[in-house]
Design brief:
With 168 residues, this protein is mainly β. It is 5% helix and 40% strand. The protein has one helix and seven strands. It has a five-stranded mixed β-barrel. A hairpin with a 5-residue loop joins β3 and β4. About 24% of the residues have low confidence.
Length: 168
């Protein structure tokens, strides 16, 4: 068992998709997330964290097809420590996230997140759509995070979509 890491943020660059000699896909990119807080002097601070990540298999192909720079995602996996020798002979290292589960948080066809959080995980099951917008929900049903889902005052119309029109 390993310690799981969950990162929610925006892609800092487009997905770079490659194929291993075995034919398995690997997608690489990076995610940025921020933490806002007040310092002891009362000054508003914003701490940003950038983390490279790797996704393997069918999930890598899905990420390449549907994600782009700025896309909001939830990534779950484990940290790995990578080391290599640079062209100048120096030893380089970094931590990266080896993704087990990826959830796309942007609404389909739009860069705004309106609560239709369809995600994809490598085992092939999709996440269920979020609960109705005007009903309170349990913290567990809001993206797996331990926070309450914000209550939306306006009613969002329901759209009838044919299952065959969904691209994934």
């Amino acid at each position: 068992m390993y310690n799981k890491v969950i990162m929610v943020g925006n892609l800092t660059r487009d997905i770079e998709l490659r194929y291993l000699p075995s034919g398995s896909a690997i997608a690489k990119s990076a995610v940025a997330t921020s933490y806002k807080y007040k310092s002891s002097t009362g000054e508003q601070k914003d701490e940003v964290c950038f983390l490279d990540f790797n996704i393997f298999g069918r999930s890598a192909e899905v990420a390449n097809q549907y994600l782009k720079k700025g896309s909001k995602v939830l990534l779950e996996g484990r940290l790995v420590f990578e080391q290599w020798t640079a062209q100048d002979g120096s030893t380089r290292s970094r931590h990266s996230l080896r993704v087990d589960t990826m959830k796309m948080l942007d609404a389909k066809g739009d860069s705004m997140n309106v609560g239709d959080n369809q995600g994809y995980n490598p085992q092939g099951s999709y996440n269920q759509p979020a609960a109705q917008y005007d009903e309170p929900s349990s913290p567990a049903s809001y993206g797996g995070m331990n926070q309450a889902k914000p209550r939306v005052e306006q009613r969002i119309p329901e759209i009838d979509i044919d299952e065959d029109e969904i691209p994934f």
